[in-house]
Each structure stands twice: as structure tokens, then as C-alpha cells.
Backbone:
């Protein structure tokens, strides 16, 4: 039983190591996998943080 | 208020790494729902953000139309869409939605990811093509899980 679990873990590690990072059309699959690992509320938090950062940078650029 | 979250926020809720500055929703255009929606919009201080209409508050006749009402509210930009794609309205879309719980007591009805992609493809402009690529790959990754 313990051996089987170790084999499964090793198979998962191998699969992760050989997973593509980008699709043929250039989409970053690592970002998608990361987003999919979050809850819907956490995904909204990520969006809010990005929007806030962009707005802050725009404000700073306008002032300089 | 009966509505369906569509657009970029819907994509993000499904796990697509997209950025967007507005919330797009398709609302039910039944009379009772329009009354409830207007009341919610008033409490949010909603005004049009389109040039020439900027100090105007939306009226029930606007919300009863199939058109798009582009608003600014105290909580940010909000697009109320009477229909999307090739004329899909709330009642048609409802069967292709799912309800997602954001936090205790707050659930949202959003378009399914396959429906979001299909409807975006119907009227995709140049600016939508990148988002479509990301949405399609997100669907593929979700299917692999």
C-alpha cells in the first residue's frame, strides 16, 4: 500500500515536471493552473489587486 | 435582482487570468426585476459614463431595452446588457449558468465557461481575440482536472 502511494506520488511529480508551461498559441498555462487552484473569491481578489495596481500606476504616471 | 454575470469577471470567476475594469451583467427585463434593479442602481449612485449622457441616471425604459447601458457607480463601472452575442437574453441564457458562492450569504449566477466562449465567438472583435484564447485554454485545463 505504502509503495503504491509512493509510486503515485512519483507519477504525479513526473507529470508536473513534463507539463507544458505555454500553449501552442502562447497562453501562459502556469497562470491558468494557479488561478484554478484558487477559490472564486480569491480569484476576484487577484483581479481587484491588479486593477488597483494599474490605477495607482496610472495616477503616478499622470502626476510625474 | 435577477442577473447573470458575463464578460471578463465571469472569465476570472472560472479561473481565467484576465484583467477587466468593469462588471458585465445580463439582467432579466421583467417589470418587477427592472424595478428592483433601478432601486439597487439608485443606492449605488449609478450614472451613464457614455459621452453626452454622463450626468444621467438610467431609467426603466433603458433597462427594458435589449441595448447596453454603460454605467459608472460608486462601486465601479457596471455594464447592464439587455442582450449579448446574437441576441441572447436573460431567459435564454439561464439554462447555461451556474451559481458560485463567493462568501457566506453571497452567491452569483454566472454564465458557464463553454457558453461564455461560444457567445463571445459570435461577435468577437479584434480586442476579444486574446481573451478568447485564454478562455479556451482555461476550459481545456479545467477539463484535464
Residues:
Amino acid at each position: 500500500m505504502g509503495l503504491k502511494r509512493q509510486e503515485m506520488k512519483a507519477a504525479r511529480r513526473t507529470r508536473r515536471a513534463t507539463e507544458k508551461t505555454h500553449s501552442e498559441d502562447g497562453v501562459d498555462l502556469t497562470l491558468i493552473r494557479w488561478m484554478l487552484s484558487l477559490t472564486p473569491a480569491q480569484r476576484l481578489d487577484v483581479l481587484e489587486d491588479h486593477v488597483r495596481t494599474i490605477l495607482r500606476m496610472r495616477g503616478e504616471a499622470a502626476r510625474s | 435582482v435577477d442577473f447573470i454575470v458575463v464578460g471578463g469577471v465571469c472569465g476570472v470567476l472560472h479561473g481565467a487570468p484576465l484583467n477587466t475594469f468593469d462588471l458585465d451583467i445580463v439582467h432579466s427585463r421583467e417589470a418587477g426585476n427592472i424595478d428592483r434593479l433601478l432601486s439597487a442602481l439608485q443606492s449605488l449612485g449609478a450614472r451613464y459614463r457614455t459621452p453626452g449622457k454622463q450626468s444621467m441616471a438610467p431609467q426603466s425604459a433603458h433597462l427594458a431595452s435589449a441595448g447596453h447601458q454603460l454605467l459608472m457607480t460608486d462601486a465601479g463601472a457596471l455594464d447592464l446588457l439587455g442582450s449579448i452575442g446574437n441576441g441572447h437574453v436573460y431567459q435564454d441564457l439561464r439554462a447555461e449558468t451556474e451559481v458560485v458562492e463567493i462568501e457566506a450569504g453571497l452567491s452569483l449566477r454566472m454564465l458557464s465557461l463553454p457558453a461564455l466562449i461560444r457567445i463571445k465567438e459570435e461577435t468577437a472583435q479584434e480586442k476579444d481575440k486574446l481573451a478568447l484564447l485564454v478562455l479556451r485554454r482555461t476550459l481545456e485545463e479545467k477539463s484535464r482536472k
